[in-house]
Amino acid sequence: MRVKICGLTTPEGVMAAANAGAAYVGFVFFEKSPRNLTIEAARALAVEVPLGVAKVGLFVNSDDAFLDAILAAVPLDMLQLHGSESPERVAELRARHGLPVMKAIGVRVADDLEAVDAYATVADQLLIDAKPAPGADLPGGNGLAFDWTLLQGRRWPVPWMLAGGLTPDNVARACNLTGARQVDVSSGVESAPGVKDADLIAAFTRAAATVG
Ligand SMILES: O=C(O)c1ccccc1NCC(=O)[C@H](O)[C@H](O)COP(=O)(O)O
After folding, report:
1. What is the mean pLDDT of each run of 10 residues along the chain (212 residues)?
2. CATH topology of domain 2-209
3. Which of 3, 57, 83, 149 has the fewest CB atoms inside 10 Å of its own CB, making it the most exposed?
4. 55-100: per-residue pLDDT in tens?
5. Handedness of CA 72, 73, 75, 78 (dihedral sign)
6. Angle at 87 between CA 86 and CA 88, to 5 degrees
7. Number of Cβ within a 10 Å radius of residue 7
8. Which of 3, 61, 82 to mutate to test the pocket of ligand 1 (most atoms within 8 A of CB)?
9. Of the candidates 34, 40, 56, 45, which has an alpha carbon nearest to the alpha carbon of residue 184?
10. Could you give the CA distance from residue 39 to residue 41 in angstroms, rounded to a whole number?
11. Residues enclosing ligand 1, CB less than 6 A?
12. How far is ligand 1, taken at its centre, from the CA of residue 141, in Å?
């Protein structure tokens, strides 16, 4: 089981994630988010991430200039695209930056899964997340779960992660229901929006590790 802890904002949070065995740490570059990082803050965090833990930058419909500026300063290992980027834009960014790209897809009903196939041919990984409520400020990181049974029997040709409303209490059940072997969490390991809790991070990775 591989765990991604998303929306880290402090060195303590990064170390808590690494010490708990996270395979990925996520840094948010989206102004409206309580987890948003400046370039300087992100660089300071990224250089402290232990080798072997992948540093994922989360972007929402970012333009080339913004991505260029972040990538010139912050040593990221993967781009997570969490907006309405088209399959063509995913392919373009993957080629332009030479980094693997994970495309997030929001799911509320079965029809939402139709979009996944188009991205599975151009992205390196998929992030299957809950679709936010209409009018929500954030396209992700809302602590909202979706109906996990929608994923039963679904398979894609690239690795995928399950996200959306996961917590230490529900992550094992979510993985057993969906067959997920990678999970992503943000709100479920926070004591307040944007404030990661080391005990919850450790509890989350322990619970994920119980999945057979
Ligand atoms: O975390 C944010 O603030 C955020 C902002 C804009 C786009 C995506 C964002 N977060 C995505 C995630 O943290 C996760 O990939 C995923 O949505 C799960 O979040 P949560 O339900 O809070 O565990």
Report:
1. 98 98 98 97 97 98 98 98 97 97 97 93 97 93 96 94 98 97 98 97 98 85
2. TIM Barrel (3.20.20)
3. 149
4. 999 999 999 999 999 999 999 999 999 999 999 999 999 999 999 9
5. negative
6. 85
7. 28
8. 82
9. 56
10. 6
11. 6-7, 28, 30, 33, 35, 58, 60, 82, 127, 129, 138-144, 163-166, 184-188
12. 2
How many Å apart are CA 109 and CA 94, to the nearest integer?
A: 29
Query: Is the separation of the CB atoms in 123 and 145 below 8 Å?
Result: no
Confirm whether 6 is a catalytic residue. yes
What are the extents of the domains in the chain?
2-209
Place of tokens 């997570």: 80
What is the complex's ipTM, to 2 decimals? 0.97
